[in-house]
Specification:
Elements: E1 3-8, E2 16-20, E3 26-31, H1 36-51, H2 61-75
Parallel strand pairs: 1-3
Antiparallel strand pairs: 2-3
Length: 78
Amino acid sequence: MEIIVQFLDLPETVAEMVTENEDGTHTIFLNSKMTCEKQRKAYLHALDHIERDDFRSGLTAQEIEANEEIQIQKAIPH
């Protein structure tokens, strides 16, 4: 698996973006305005999406994130 990482000046509300490239590689765009720790967390978050192959799920980015939040909430003991 090849992953390209680029740092861009993204809006403050965007930590990262991920694209699947035509050659099967992925590019993770990290917000260059964030701290190194936040960039690390954003990178790991993006890597999770790549490893789960979310690009082929048929869901929108918003649906994927909502499902992820539901799974996190289910994992928290109540």
